Amino acid sequence: MNFSGEWRRLRELDWRELDIKEAGGWPWSLQLICCLLVLGLTFVGMHWYLAAPKAKDLADAEREERELMRDYRHKAAQAASLPVMRDQVAELEARMSTLREMLPTGTEIPSLIDHISETAIDNQLTIDFIRLRSPVAQEFYIEQPFDIQVRGDYHRIAYFLAGVAGLPRIVTQHDFTLEPVDGQGQLRLSMLAQTYRYRPSGGEDARP
């Protein structure tokens, strides 16, 4: 095979006189180039027409597979932790039940006021007043605020506050004011106290 001769024929070829109908008489190297060019264009066309859509479908399938695997791992982790979560929910429900038992019902508010009065008397305090305010409804509970004003010495007032905080029913203490009582050597405690009633979805007390 004379490559130098073929190269010389290509260089001396008048490209303007080429006729596709006479392609059989072209130099074999030109025929080879044209065949390769046709094969390349055919390959590119087939790839664009057939392979490109399949490649897009494959990329979409791979992306969907990754998402499904991520969801599977997430759900598998949730399933593995389900017994622990159930135990935690049961523990929270038990604690909530205990806390609800510490909240007075509407009928127990007078008894709670009596207990606060007894705590003041036990600590030898003088009760000026214990006065209920209007209840305030929240989403899950009802606030029952009341004003307390008592008189006595510093230590007995401190014992009284500790006694109120230690009552079986929940009572929170707010807005303390402590001032001396003129000429008596005593202090006057004024504060806002609040207890709470559980309010289930029905809007009524959970316990009678």
UniProtKB/TrEMBL annotation:
<protein>
    <submittedName>
        <fullName>Type 4a pilus biogenesis protein PilO</fullName>
    </submittedName>
</protein>
<keyword id="KW-0175">Coiled coil</keyword>
<feature type="transmembrane region" description="Helical">
    <location>
        <begin position="28"/>
        <end position="50"/>
    </location>
</feature>
<dbReference type="InterPro" id="IPR014717">
    <property type="entry name" value="Transl_elong_EF1B/ribsomal_bS6"/>
</dbReference>
<dbReference type="Pfam" id="PF04350">
    <property type="entry name" value="PilO"/>
</dbReference>
<feature type="coiled-coil region">
    <location>
        <begin position="58"/>
        <end position="102"/>
    </location>
</feature>
<keyword id="KW-0812">Transmembrane</keyword>
<keyword id="KW-0472">Membrane</keyword>
<keyword id="KW-1133">Transmembrane helix</keyword>
<dbReference type="InterPro" id="IPR007445">
    <property type="entry name" value="PilO"/>
</dbReference>
